[in-house]
C-alpha cells in the first residue's frame, strides 16, 4: 500500500443535533458528500484511549481509577483523616498546583490514598505530547514513532485562535483534539446563542484547517465521540450512601460527573447499597459482571470496581469528586469557556453515561476531504485506530480488535 498522510480532527461534543446548513455549512456539506458512520462508545468520560489503541479499557488500562490493596494507616494518616475534608482537600489542591502529577486532589485523603489513577487527561492539559500517553498497549503514536506522529490538545480558542496554524503537513499522522467545544458545552449549553456562536466558529475553523490540509495533500478525518445533554437533574451520591446507614469503612466510592464506581468490603454493604442505587430514578446501577455488555471485562482481582452507577442523559452527580470551591473559582477565571462556573458549580451539560443514550453518548465519523467508498452505517470507537492505519496505507497492527471503516474510492 502507498503511504499517505492523515489529519484527524477529534472534536468531542460536536453534537449531531446542533448541525445545520445555516450554522455549520462545512460539516453539513461533508456529511452530504460522504455520509457518516455512527460510533458507539462505552460508559466513560474518557474515550480517547480506546480510539488510539483499537482496544477496550480492560486491555489498554485507561479506566479512571482502581483500588489499591489495603494497607494499615499510619498515625499521621489517622490524624489527617480526623480533619475536615475541606481543609485537607484545600491543601491537596495547593499541592496539585505545585505538582500537577498529584492528580484529583479534590478527593479527601482517606479515600484518595486507596485509589490508583489511570487517567490521561492530566497529560492532555499540558498541551498534548503523543509520547507521554502511556497505556498498557501501544497507541497509534507509539507504533508510528515520534517523528511520524503528533498529538495536540486545544483547550481554548483564547490560546489557539487559529487551528490551521497547528498543521504543517510534516508528520504522517497529525491528530488535534479540539477540547474547547467540550469544555464550552459543559458550562454554556444553557445559553443557546453562545453555543451557536461557538459551534459556528468550530465549523469555520474546521473548514479553514481542512483547506490547508488539502493544499498539503493530507487526508482529513472528523471524529466525534459524544454529544452533550443539558443538565436537568442532580444526584447527591454521598448523601444517598450516608442514608443507607452503612459505615464508610465497609465500602469505597469514586464519583465522576456522570458516573461512579463502588467497592464493597462486606456482604451487608453490597446488598444495602446496591438496593438503594437500583432504586434511583435517573441512573442505572450495574454490577461489574453486568458491565460486560458494554465491553468492560475487568477481572475482579484488578480492583477496577464491584459496581457502577451510570447517570441517565440530563442527570449528573453533584457534588462529585472533582468539585471544590477553590478549584471552581480558579477555573472560572482561567478561560472564557468556563465563566459559567461563576454563577453555579453545577455542569450545565454532560456526557459519559450509558452508550445506548443516543445521541448524547454516541458519536460519528466523516471524511472532510478525499474520495471514499460508502461508509458503514454503524461502528464503534474501537474501529477508529484501524481506520487511521488503513488511510495511512498501512496494515492493521496485531492486537487491534477494530475493523476498517473507510476505503478510498477506486475510479
UniProtKB/TrEMBL annotation:
Q: Which domain of life is it from?
A: Bacteria
Quote the InterPro entries the UniProt record gives: Alkaline_phosphatase_core_sf (IPR017850), Phosphodiest/P_Trfase (IPR002591)
Question: Which Pfam families does the UniProt entry name for this protein?
Answer: Phosphodiest
Q: By what name is this protein known?
A: Type I phosphodiesterase / nucleotide pyrophosphatase
Q: Which organism is it from?
A: Algisphaera agarilytica
Amino acid at each position: 500500500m502507498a503511504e499517505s498522510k492523515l489529519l484527524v480532527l477529534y472534536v468531542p461534543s460536536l453534537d449531531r443535533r446542533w448541525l445545520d446548513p445555516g450554522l455549520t455549512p462545512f460539516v453539513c456539506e461533508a456529511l452530504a458528500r460522504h455520509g457518516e458512520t455512527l460510533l458507539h462508545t462505552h460508559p466513560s468520560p474518557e474515550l480517547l484511549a480506546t480510539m488510539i489503541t483499537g482496544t477496550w479499557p480492560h486491555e489498554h488500562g485507561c479506566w479512571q481509577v482502581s483500588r489499591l490493596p489495603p494497607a494499615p494507616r499510619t498515625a499521621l494518616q489517622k490524624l489527617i483523616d480526623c480533619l475536615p475534608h475541606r481543609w485537607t482537600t484545600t491543601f491537596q489542591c495547593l499541592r496539585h498546583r505545585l505538582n500537577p502529577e498529584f492528580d484529583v486532589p479534590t478527593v479527601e485523603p482517606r479515600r484518595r490514598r486507596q485509589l490508583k489513577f489511570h487517567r490521561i487527561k492530566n497529560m492532555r492539559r499540558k498541551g498534548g505530547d503523543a509520547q507521554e500517553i502511556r497505556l498498557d498497549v501501544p497507541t497509534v503514536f507509539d507504533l508510528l514513532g515520534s517523528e511520524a506522529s503528533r498529538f495536540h490538545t486545544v483547550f481554548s480558542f483564547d490560546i489557539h485562535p487559529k487551528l490551521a496554524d497547528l498543521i504543517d503537513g510534516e508528520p504522517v499522522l497529525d491528530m488535534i483534539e479540539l477540547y474547547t467545544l467540550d469544555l464550552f458545552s459543559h458550562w454554556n449549553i444553557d445559553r443557546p446563542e453562545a453555543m451557536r456562536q461557538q459551534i459556528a466558529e468550530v465549523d469555520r475553523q474546521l473548514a479553514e484547517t481542512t483547506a490547508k490540509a488539502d493544499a498539503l495533500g493530507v487526508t482529513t478525518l472528523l471524529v466525534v465521540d459524544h454529544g452533550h445533554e443539558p443538565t436537568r437533574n442532580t444526584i447527591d451520591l454521598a448523601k444517598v450512601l450516608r442514608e443507607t446507614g452503612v459505615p464508610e469503612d465497609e465500602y469505597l466510592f469514586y464519583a465522576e460527573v456522570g458516573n461512579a464506581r463502588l467497592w464493597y468490603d462486606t456482604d451487608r454493604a453490597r446488598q444495602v447499597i446496591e438496593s438503594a442505587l437500583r432504586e434511583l430514578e435517573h441512573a442505572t446501577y450495574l454490577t461489574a459482571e453486568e458491565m460486560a455488555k458494554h465491553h468492560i471485562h475487568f477481572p475482579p482481582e484488578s480492583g477496577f470496581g464491584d459496581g457502577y452507577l451510570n447517570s441517565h442523559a440530563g442527570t449528573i452527580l453533584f457534588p462529585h469528586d472533582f468539585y471544590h470551591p477553590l478549584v471552581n473559582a480558579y477555573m472560572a477565571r482561567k478561560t472564557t469557556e468556563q465563566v459559567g462556573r461563576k454563577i453555579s458549580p453545577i455542569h450545565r451539560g454532560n456526557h459519559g453515561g450509558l452508550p445506548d443514550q443516543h445521541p448524547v453518548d454516541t458519536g460519528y465519523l466523516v471524511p472532510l476531504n478525499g474520495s471514499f467508498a460508502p461508509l458503514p452505517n454503524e461502528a464503534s470507537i474501537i474501529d477508529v485506530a484501524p481506520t487511521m492505519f488503513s488511510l495511512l496505507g498501512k496494515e492493521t497492527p496485531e492486537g487491534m480488535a477494530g475493523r476498517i471503516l473507510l476505503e478510498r474510492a477506486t475510479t
